[in-house]
């Protein structure tokens, strides 16, 4: 031989050596793939999107059954009364209302309309006492509608399982001659507010707190009324009455919504402070309500003495007003005019109506939230979806489904389920883990990977492919020229 | 190929017999005098090998505080038990100890050389002094040792493992190897070539490649013995440190890189500048990348596993997580074992110049950045890149030469290339 | 139905019984002013509200889902603070926000010990229930950050420590049958400013509208040489006490052309007291009278008690109230006192070492009295700076005295996660100066861990010294600034590309060498 050794005769040039080397590279890489997956993958579990959309459609027509039983006295007088009342009610509502004549017995969750001895309309628990002679289909339907189907009211706060009720005594300026040093808020709350909160405990939990402030200036100058030494608040001024910059109102350290009730004591120099109507005339009212926020009562106290402690009796009228405002804010339906309230306020009718109203509200909000979650996840491909989020979405969906098949559920049960569904759906929507990689576009990922992989993996791939091609040729019996 | 004569002499010449002690004495003198304060230098000791961290860990341990409960101490519990019980804590003593450890390393290297040449254990060769000198006076090895970096211990253990493997002393080799793995997890790369070396022979077969000659059936029993020693040391470590927190603090550190102190390697700046989201991925890539070389190199050089370990030392010097100068230093020194490949080195001048370039730039830029404050981190980073290139070039040279030698000398009119 | 109404009636009657308790709140305000020997004037406002017979919440009543909580009825006690205390079941809370360095040697003991630079928050909490102490601590930080508009959220795990001895509870720990734990964090670069003062004033019953608080004029407060506010909540068997205080050191010499130390409320605060706070039980001003020099104090003190003149603001003021001292002559700073200290010990703490990777922490303590003194020394050091405790030395006049350091407790720092806590007792012989030093190493941070102004350096928290003679009189050593080595913040992609290219080059070359075949090529003659 003329030249150097024939390279193909050298041991390490053998094909099997080369192939096993290439294979050993690939084995390590393949073994590392799970690690790659583990270190880079964004946990993105699939959400039951189609079910969420289907559920949202299904709940458009979410209905709750209402059974009303007319006493036989009514049906005796007018056979078709029940049917007529039902027709009138059904036209105006999304509820599955059935009105029937009495069969002599009342079922557990139905409402009874009984003849009244007197001329007044009286509500007692789930029983309505209605004067027989007045009982025409339209009048009865109207009265029933007010109990069963409360109107949508923009003043009502959004549903929350827990509210914080914050009662504040605000002295506008306590160095102006008179100061309300203290008020017996806890007693006032116990007498006037707690009956309501305990009656509504099936709907909400409440945290109650009270405070007093000694300097709570207004952000504007009230109007001085020409006649009698009085000051007035115009309707425009009422909208900017709350001076949140200066008044330290409950900031709520938790996430529960706060309802504020303010007892405002104007400074001695600005008394009496009256609320004006649109024409600028003083009204008799000393209180007003700020929709979805709270209520305010203005207390024009007598001039003397200079230091006052407001007792429970002093606070009676203010707290009665607060209790009415609370009922309004929470959406407890008002009884139609002419109806007399029972001793107990709110009545079973009202609470049931509120339960229905809130349950429907919750169902709608839940399916909206779920739909938003699902579409958000669909829109942003980089958004991580953890197990918690998926479970929350699933459980919320499960709760919604159980509501659709809720034929034998009590109203409180329905509300509790809808509340759980809402809470779960919101927990999923606001889960902080979903924000992790919102700002990491895909291009960025490639820019980071390319420098290493483009230059390191390509030779490996090419070598592997060449070997595969050579091996296939060999198998076909074609002699591969060596060297 | 004409075999050069490393003529074995049954008796060393007078000058040769004194050469080794003399070299050690010079080393000891320098270590005792300590002309510079090198203990802090990041290039000579990493957080995993720093003498100060070792001292701090021993101090904490002696005062009843678990040194592994924080991020200060990342040495193996073996060091902890060794230094807190047996060895007095004095700087002079440490200087002596480190010099002795280097002397032992040089001794091991000489014996590897002898084993490779097929000389008897007590037979001297004319190159012995050169081999020892290459180890004792390589500045990359010398300076970390003066700085009392425990990487000197790791080098010594690595060389001892190779020496025993070359001499077919199975248990001793495996024991040394398990000590090595305990003190430095990245040495896992060396496990395969050392085990295979035990099964084959250390002689040079570079010029005449052949299939692996050893008996692979013995491999499982070797592996089992190794695991036995290794787990014994692990249990001992747990007992010494009173828990298993040391695992994440020592081995975990070279996988997760919690301490970003600059060193001569590629990891520290890469992970200083890494986006948080990609950190785990690239840590994984860098760790796996280190392992990927073992099998191919061992397969290719299955006829000369000493050469395979030599190449892998080079890889470790470039790519391990917390390298010091002594890691590439060991690779450079080991060139002395393979004089037969010298004629076939591809670009030795370029490689040498790159090394020279890097070894001047690195201390300069390190100083400019951290001490003078006139440079910034990029300066030092750039010089570590040059250093990586220099080490890479050396590894590529070694690979080329190790393979090329099999083709014999180039004849007129013929060119050898890779397809 | 009847059952419910009887329940309601029962509820009513039970709350009637509580009626008297709810009103048991007491508010007192107090201002003390003293002239300092270097001519400056230290004023300290103190507003205390006592909520009688209240007790801290038991953490076992807390739970994530249903925090069934008793109603909270307050008149004087600040509701917004009360909510936070109840929500996280805090037994004792101390928050101070200060700016400047309290000069112990010439100003002496501050009226409130919490004068450390920047923000400092510490709380004692009972450990029990489902919500962990750390979880509540995190909630507390965030809630207070929101309440005071301060970046207390940055007092995270990397700054939170639990020192065992330096911060004993200042009130009483209630016996709930639970262990109590402390959490402490400080942030030296968070300074007090107007946006923190406004929420502070809102916690006061009379805000800044009347009473002593009406003197708190932000323009003057934040112009003072040193100023700081503190919020302290503690419990003792009387009830829960909220103590709000504001301290400042103003310099009357600065605006005046002559070196006269004269001051009055009007000159210090640019305000006088127009109205008294109607709900304050007492509203007192106390002026400590100078021990030397000719001076006149106007108006006539209502009472004199030792060296202190007291004024009591009644429930109504006939005319605006102002008080001041005028000196006959110019201020003479007694040169003999220039080097003497008003404190039992003088402290200096410095970080030495010019390089960006290591340094030496040096603390010099001088015992100004003749008797041996034991001092508790606390360092809460972020992991940026790591101690080498084996290099600790103690010297007196150059003589090593390592026997003077004892009872060391050390919690190691964990990089990227937890700071170091180092507590030890130093013994200082009478009239001696002790030099304590320890080597430190500076950490190298990820580029995302650096603040936006990385080159400025990091403020290290102050060290705390507690003389054993008075365990409540903490002293703060000044904060330190440490400069850490910074990476190039514009480099991430460059580094990825450079490093990856080098790796790929070496990888590719070795791969080629190992897999490609050698060939022998015959060159034609003549080439």
UniProtKB/TrEMBL annotation, chain A:
**GO aspect biological process, one term:** attachment of GPI anchor to protein
Which superkingdom?
A: Eukaryota
Gene Ontology terms, cellular component aspect?
GPI-anchor transamidase complex
Q: Which residues form a coiled coil?
A: none
Q: Where is the signal peptide?
A: none
Q: Which UniProt key words apply to this protein?
A: Endoplasmic reticulum, Glycoprotein, GPI-anchor biosynthesis, Membrane, Transmembrane, Transmembrane helix
Q: Which residues cross the membrane?
A: 21-37, 446-465
Q: In which pathway does it act?
A: Glycolipid biosynthesis; glycosylphosphatidylinositol-anchor biosynthesis
Q: Which family does it belong to?
A: Belongs to the PIGS family.
Name of the protein: GPI transamidase component PIG-S
- Species in which this protein is naturally found: Marasmius oreades (fairy-ring Marasmius)
From TrEMBL, chain B:
Coiled coil (residue ranges):
none
GO terms (BP aspect): attachment of GPI anchor to protein; GPI anchor biosynthetic process
Q: How does it sit in the membrane?
A: Multi-pass membrane protein
Give UniProt keywords alphabetically. Endoplasmic reticulum, GPI-anchor biosynthesis, Membrane, Transmembrane, Transmembrane helix
Entry's transmembrane regions: 12-33, 92-110, 130-153, 173-199, 226-247, 267-293, 305-325, 345-365, 377-401
**Main location (coarse class):** endoplasmic reticulum
Pathway-wise, it operates in: Glycolipid biosynthesis; glycosylphosphatidylinositol-anchor biosynthesis
Keyword Oxidoreductase belongs to the record: no
The record's subcellular location field reads:
Endoplasmic reticulum membrane
**One Gene Ontology cellular component annotation?**
GPI-anchor transamidase complex
What family does the Swiss-Prot or TrEMBL record give for this protein?
Belongs to the PIGU family.
Q: What is this protein called?
A: PIG-U-domain-containing protein
Native source organism of the sequence:
Marasmius oreades (fairy-ring Marasmius)
TrEMBL record, chain C:
Q: Which GO terms describe its biological process?
A: attachment of GPI anchor to protein
Arranged from A to Z, the UniProt key words for this protein are: Membrane, Signal, Transmembrane, Transmembrane helix
Q: Which PANTHER family match?
A: GPI TRANSAMIDASE COMPONENT PIG-T (PTHR12959:SF11), GPI TRANSAMIDASE COMPONENT PIG-T-RELATED (PTHR12959)
Q: The organism sits in which domain of life?
A: Eukaryota
- Protein name per its UniProtKB record: Gpi16 subunit, GPI transamidase component
Gene Ontology annotations for the cellular component aspect, listed alphabetically: GPI-anchor transamidase complex
| InterPro entries in the cross-refs | PIG-T
Q: Which residue spans traverse the membrane?
A: 493-514
Instruction: Report the leader peptide range.
Output: 1-17
